[in-house]
Amino acid sequence: MEPAYFIYAFAGGLLAMILRLPPLAGFLVAGFLLNYSGYTLTPTLEAVANLGVTLLLFTIGLKLNIRTLLQSEVWGVASLHITLSSVLFVLILGLLKFAGIMLMQSTDWTAIVILAFALSFSSTVFAVKVLEERSETQSFYGRVAIGILIMQDIFAVIFLSATTGSLPSVWALTLFLLIPAAPFLRQLLDRLGHGEMQVLFGFVLALVLGYKLFELVGLKGDLGALIMGILLAPHKTSANLARSLFNIKELFLVGFFLSIGLTALPNWEHVGLALLLLVLLPLKTVLFVVIFPRFKLRVRTSVLASMTLSNYSEFGLIVTALAMTQGWLNSDWLVILSLSVAMSFVVAAILNNYNERLYQLSRNRLQEVPAAELHPHDKPIELNGAQVVILGMGKIGRGTYQRLQQKYNLNVLGIDNDENKVERLSQDYQIVEGDAVDSDFWDKLLVSDQVQLVVLAMPHHAGNVYALKQLRGRDFKGRVAAIVEYSDEVERLKNLGADEVFEVYEGAGLSLADQAMQQ
User: For labelling alongside 94, which of 130, 244, 326, 435 has CA 20 to 30 A away?
Assistant: First the structure.
């Protein structure tokens, strides 16, 4: 692979970080700069990009509760939005056709309908990347957004199968055998430990049993990777597997973002039409914001999920490429949509950096659903007289909970944003689902003066920093203790007002020494 790919990608990502933007915005710009410098999309880079997307879908599946897709706020919103946005885009593109725009005049109504359908999708890759950077893939709004994206992917697969006229092979029925085989695969995962064999097993599941096997029977390979992840999701070590693949997946996804800029070289007419499509992007956002409250979701949940889905999709490019091979669309449209997808990623990356501020600006302009009618996951949190609140019920959070309850006889409440974990721990702990990076969450939490101590035990430093800012910004009078993974994070939390900060590994060492001496 050309060294320039690495140089441009690193420079673009570094510049984006300096400007306080997600690195993916820099990777997209780097792709276009490579294109203008005369570089092209090579088979190697395309393979890396495809591998990144496949691993991404596999890791999504590892974290997905299949019941999420059956909830009305997921399948209902996805179906309603894709229908309404497609109709809306057909009307607007039709008006542009009558307005005399040259490229639009040569586009027939069949092509316009396909374009409208392609524009109605949101990007799975972009949305999950943004949610992961904010550690919000397991928040309620994050789960809803991911569920909607998966429903859109299913719609796309149905469309691709229908338009090509090639139905899946009869052998596709044998894929149902993967369901009874899943327990065996989970047992095998248990025996592989946490080293290179675990990572290699993840690749086998995603690329062989998932991608390749599904392609062989006439189904989309990416869908196979997603389903393999879902089959392993109930296993206790699925989260460890997702973490093991995280950095590899992130590196391969750099290739995906570069490939968008390298897809085609636009002319000024292409740029103009791409900008016009970008101007239409807020219509998708507004539609989501209007639809979500109909399913009893809070304003914050509606706004943040809508912001996450406010972009055009790489699936739109796949739909457009297929229509082009069928002779329904001019090849110019693939260039235009590639450019509009890239532009939408940059704009969405910037806006999602300020999603909380945008919510605060819009909360007084949008009507809130009455508390009694809210979705169960969006209702106010009952403190039940808790004296201590622990945010993050991982191993450290659970250990802290047991110590405070058993030794100090305190009334402790655990809070975690992972629905599956809350359900699993509810028999042994007083635990509720809550999102610590939700500003409304803090208004609900601090209604009682009985809370004497808040323990920040979330696995991601950014979440603990945000929670601490919210606590001190609301004049919380109790004490705050927090954990960090790295020593350079201690000072920042103390400067923000944490009373006690513990390094995870240092604390583990002290505890080990104490237990060893007691024995």
Answer: 326
